[in-house]
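Model: You mentioned two targets. I'll fold them one after the other.
Researcher: Yes, keep them separate.
Model: Target one:
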Amino acid sequence: MNDDRDAPTVRDVSDWWSTAISRVEPDVIELRGHPIQELIGSTSFVAVIWLLLRGQLPTPGQERLLEAALVSSVDHGPHAPSIAVARIAATCGIGLNNAVASAVNTLGDVHGGAGEQCLHLLGEVATRAGAGESVESAASSVVGRWRARSRYLPGYGHRFHTVDPRREPLLRRVQEAVDDGVVTGAYLRAAEAVEGELARGRSRPVPINVDGCTAVVYGELGFAPPLARGLFVLSRSVGILAHAWEETGQGRRNKGPMPPSIPPTFLS
């Protein structure tokens, strides 16, 4: 059987893995065109994250704002499912990388996805406000539509905190970035309008939480919604690693979700 198709060339194979992120050849490592030896010692880890995702180095203001968001999400204690899984996995005879991977794999739509979802919500409000509608009217319409689909509104309220302690410092830094001309404030205004809409007619407000605050940051900085989840995963991986490492030093084996002395309720 004859095959008239051209045989694959070396260029075909090279193009199969074409990338603008890194160039690695003998004695050469470049990230987005920047030699690694020039980045080491002169560029922060946060700035390199921006460089790899966005293609250029951030301004100092952009770097500060991204760093604040990443720091805010590193850990929320063993009651967070991802942290609990990391600690349980670490007692099962696997390596740290396996424990971290096990924990990261729990970060889905319910645990870990609220920032991405909130960024979609705030984007709808900001887009309508940018088209001439008042931000309050836009927030009312968008919140109503989202609540028709689900009682839960991503990025607002918290099961532990009356007011999330990360709210004020994050939103303050966004406002400072607005004042300095680093960002426009469109997502900050949208978030505050949604917060106001949720408080309307209630004796207790429903304040924005860390997922909503980081969504504001990522929206202001121009990150696409899926990257809000990716950046959360990157941030939370720090806490996951720390908890997995601590657990390995405590000597437990096959740690379950509760002490053996407390049996689960049997439903007869």
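Model: Target two:
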Amino acid sequence: MTKMRIIVSGGGTGGHIYPAMALIKRLQERDMIEDVLYVGTEKGLESKIVKNAGIAFKTIEIQGFRRKLSLDNLKTVKLFLSSIHKSRKIIKEFKPDIVVGTGGYVSSAIVYAAHTMHIPTVIHEQNTIAGVTNKFLAKFVDKIAIAFTEAADQFNEKKKIVFTGNPRAQEVVNIQKNDRLTEFGLEPNKDTVMIFGGSRGAKPINQAAIATMSKFVESDYQVLFVTGRVHYDGVIKLIDDKYLNSANVSVLPYIDNMPEILPDIKLIVGRSGATSIAEITALGIPAIFIPSPYVTHDHQTKNALSVAKVNAAVMIPEKDLTSDSLFKEINQIMSDTDLQQEMSNNSKKIGVPDATDRLIKVLVDLVNK
């Protein structure tokens, strides 16, 4: 069994960090790590997540380019050059067998530095639309791992591309049904819809859900409405007490270890981030996606369309989201068990339950080579 010294880097958003953490976790489970180091930024979300997981963590200072001409871009170039210098020092000290980047500006320096030092490198692209960092790094790395087949069109380096899926898929695929819904005042055996706008919540999704409460309380299914912590107090004030006290509805700010409850959910309503899609398709859960129109290159819409085109999900553009459009789509799916089954089967067909092991094979092949 190959044991590796591995540097992993990815930052900025959970979409870059959680796949990296899933990769490390699986390598540990398979006893394939001699040593691991995570390189991030001190200010990034990765600082908290990686440190809490007890993984060795080093930082570099780096920032992204502004889209408009700005003096800040001169600082960006200076930081990039100094971060490469620091990255080379980190690499010399750690002596990795391979370096993996999962996106975000921080991964650009360490992966590029590894390339210049003739160390095997891999990048992982989670979205249908490749990020700026991965597009830059594609010219230099040995392999480009992708989670959506559509992402292949984003890179000119076709021979480097390997479809692996998103490591988060394998992390959740073995979770079994459980009774966690009882923690939220819901029945564990009743069909459940979860409405969730992401870790911070999404105001347009919350507004549509609030306006639909009177219909939810009379439905044959129950609704778990997760508002996001920053919106919770405001949402509660707008919902009539008789709806809040209904046995059919539970309103929460956030759920820790949310993947644990996914096997007990019949339908998910929410954003179409890459991590969410990886988890949903691995478990085969029908979905209604309301993509965020505010993300770079509108990649959430492209993500959602990739699932909707095989009839594993329905997409409602945010501009078309109303109480009526939301309830119509939810009710159509929840009142038709054959449709639920068809969507679930289609979702599983595009899910990648062995995504992390596929990515690990790419790493092993490069290290052995």
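Researcher: Noted. Anything on target two?
Model: The CA atoms of residues 288 and 330 lie 8 Å apart.
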